[in-house]
Amino acid sequence: MARKNAALHLASLCVLCAGYLLCQYVFFAVHGMKQWPACLFLLGLVVLGISFFTKKKWTPLVTSFSYPIAFAIGALFQTDGTDPGGGRTNSLWAIWTVVFVCAIVLSATGETVKKNRDIK
Hints:
Layout: H1 2-26, H2 28-31, H3 36-53, H4 58-77, E1 80-82, E2 88-90, H5 92-119
Antiparallel strand pairs: 1-2
Helix pairs in contact: 1-3, 1-4, 3-4, 4-5
């Protein structure tokens, strides 16, 4: 069981790292953000670490795959605008963050609810 948990989390880590490299470097021209992709990547690493020690099965998979999927959703639905001072704004970072965090929260909540139902 411990090997299966480790293999699942290692595979999830590889997917998360690949998603980070793609989003940070390959698609840099799309978003132009230097620090925010790394912040979301670190959040993903923290979630993977917690899910490893709590032996979650779905949370690491959802976390790792939702990083690039949330970026794609953000890129698809982004809007450009201007702030009251005349500066340029873009909503990609907010959409990316909300989708990524919601996916993590929903997967962790769903897995916890399922575990509690199995106990009863």
